[in-house]
Amino acid sequence: YRTTDVSHIVIAARQKLEVAISWQQPEEGWICLNTDGASRGDTIAGCGGLFRNSNGQWLVVFHEIWVVAMVT
């Protein structure tokens, strides 16, 4: 086996950007759908969301998780 010298590799750290996000009330008679998702590597991922009315009341909440198995 051959080893590689990686002592000269420098990776610049990314700056963290924070953005304040808040729920905005829809017009009367409308509903709002908020969703989000994430993954961890290439084996597991998930998503979820909720529907809210113009009063902010939760109408429907959902979530899903996916686990992927790679067969070679």
Describe this entry's structure for a reader.
It comes from Trifolium medium. This is Ribonuclease H. This protein is mainly beta. The chain has one domain (about 1-70). The protein has strands spanning about 30-40, 45-50, 60-65. A 3-stranded antiparallel beta sheet has the order 1-2-3, with no helix packed on it. The protein is flat and about 60 Å long. The two termini are about 25 Å apart.
List the helices and strands and how they pair.
Elements: E1 32-40, E2 44-52, E3 58-67
Summary keywords:
72 residues; mainly beta; 3-stranded antiparallel beta sheet; 3 strands; 0% helix; flat; RNase_H-like; Ribonuclease H
- Helix proportion: under 10%
Q: State the low-pLDDT regions, or none.
A: none
The gross shape turns out to be flat
- Quaternary organization: single chain
Roughly how many Å apart are the termini?
Answer: 24 Å
What radius of gyration results from the CA coordinates? 21 Å
- H-E order: EEE
- Count the helices. How many? 0
Percent range for β-strand residues:
35-45%
Structural class: mainly beta
Widest beta sheet: strand line-up:
1-2-3
Q: How many individual domains?
A: 1
InterPro entries: RNase_H-like
Protein name: Ribonuclease H
Organism: Trifolium medium
